[in-house]
Design a protein that fits this description.
Amino acid/polyamine transporter I; Mn2+/Fe2+ NRAMP family transporter; membrane; mainly alpha; transmembrane
Length: 402
């Protein structure tokens, strides 16, 4: 029974992390970049997967062996640093959650034709209902697991109907067509994908979930490793399936609707049925991201006082309600969401850098010896993401606001 429970928990944590990253932004970015780079976008996905694994393995292992959440680890590295990290993560989580709530409303609109604001409120109530449950952790795991399978299954159907050039996609995943003109665009795409997969709050979703469930200490590292890599591979699977679905549409010479690229992929590939399937996928992606963002953002502040920790469920519900109120009254500040998305990619090297320092502090990890290869891998991710993030910040992002 114990093994079965652990398997369920580890997969639940993996799917929580994966579905936290698979939101409205994930769907839009994947289709837009496919239209921009065609089959060569496969290389961007492959490069981002390697960076994702390097980041997430380091972070989850250090959280497990230190038996502390990321913000507490950061405060032990340098007093006050944890508060800064928490501020950045919660700010990014709130901004993204406004977009997630909007995406859930859009999914409802596609399925039932109701006002997206009404759909957003109904979706928020569904998310709140999970945290009103006595066993909110298990309810969250099962919710993420079920809707994760729904998203992958439906997108797989659309991929087959779009008949993508799979051979070309495989080749270009290793030998992309990179020119001087599109090189900066490739950099931004990698930063955006990594930031959207393990940036900001997302990589901590599963790590903190395992900690809350008691999966911690050096003895738990094999389980932590499996859950960590599984989360990245689940995200990568969904990304590749959606990429191939969009590639089939693009390769056929069809144009994506700039107002809603992912919806047009589903509709062009599978007609009106495809459009309705998009509604299900969009709602599933958005509402699971709402749950993941709220849970993880609050996990970054709940340890700062006993009162916050005691009322953490109420804080999660308040976080969801606030996100919904902002969307219903103000809407989605598109440029702000894009900016925060890119900044999430910049939060990653800061957070990972802190974790790598902590990994070699005996006062934090005790007698644990962090593998040299993981340290090197982590440092490489920090350097690459800092460089690519800097290029993006100073060359690509200003174009959005010019």
């Amino acid at each position: 029974m114990k093994k079965r429970f652990n398997w369920s928990l580890l997969l639940g944590a993996a799917f929580l992390m994966a579905t936290s990253s698979i939101g409205p932004g994930f769907l839009t970015q994947t289709t837009v970049f496919t239209a921009q780079f065609a089959a060569s976008f496969g290389f961007v996905i492959l490069a981002s997967i390697l960076l994702d694994i390097g980041a997430q393995l380091n972070i989850w292992r250090i959280i497990a062996v230190s038996e502390n959440r990321a913000q507490d680890i950061a405060n032990k590295v340098l007093p006050g640093l944890g508060y800064l990290l928490a501020f950045l993560v919660v700010l990014g989580g709130l901004a993204f959650n406004i977009g997630n709530i909007g995406g859930a409303g859009l999914g409802f609109n596609v399925l039932f034709g109701v006002d997206p604001k009404i759909g957003a409120v109904v979706s928020a109530l569904v998310a709140v209902g999970i945290f009103l449950s006595k066993e909110a952790g298990k309810a969250m795991d099962r919710f993420a697991l079920a809707l994760g399978f729904v998203m992958i299954g439906l997108t797989l159907y659309v991929m087959f109907t779009s008949a993508p050039p799979v051979g070309e996609a495989v080749v270009r995943s290793f030998v992309p067509e990179v020119t001087a003109e599109n090189q900066a665009g490739f950099f931004m795409a990698i930063v955006t994908l990594v930031g959207g997969t393990v940036g900001g709050y997302i990589t901590f979703a599963g790590g903190h979930r395992l900690l809350d469930a008691g999966v911690k200490g050096t003895k738990a590292l094999p389980e932590v490793n499996r859950s960590s890599v599984s989360g990245i591979l689940i995200t990568a699977l969904m990304r590749y399936i959606l990429f191939l679905a969009a590639l089939g549409v693009v390769a056929a010479g069809l144009s994506l609707d700039e107002a809603n690229p992912p919806a047009s992929v589903f509709q062009l590939a599978a007609g009106q049925i495809g459009y309705k399937l998009f509604g299900i996928v969009m709602w599933s992606a958005a509402v699971t991201s709402v749950v993941g963002a709220a849970y993880t953002s609050v996990s970054f502040i709940r340890t700062f006082s006993k009162t916050l920790d005691r009322h953490h469920k109420r804080l999660i519900i308040a976080f969801i309600v606030l996100s919904t109120l902002v969307f219903v009254t103000i809407g989605r500040p598109v440029k702000t969401l894009i900016l925060v998305g890119a900044l999430n990619g910049l939060i990653l090297p800061i957070a990972l850098g802190i974790m790598l320092i902590a990994a070699h502090r005996k006062s934090i990890v005790g007698d644990y010896k962090h593998p040299v290869w993981l340290t090197v891998f982590g440092v490489l991710v920090v350097v690459v993401m800092s460089y690519l993030g800097g290029v993006t910040l100073f060359t690509e992002l200003p174009k959005l606001f010019s």
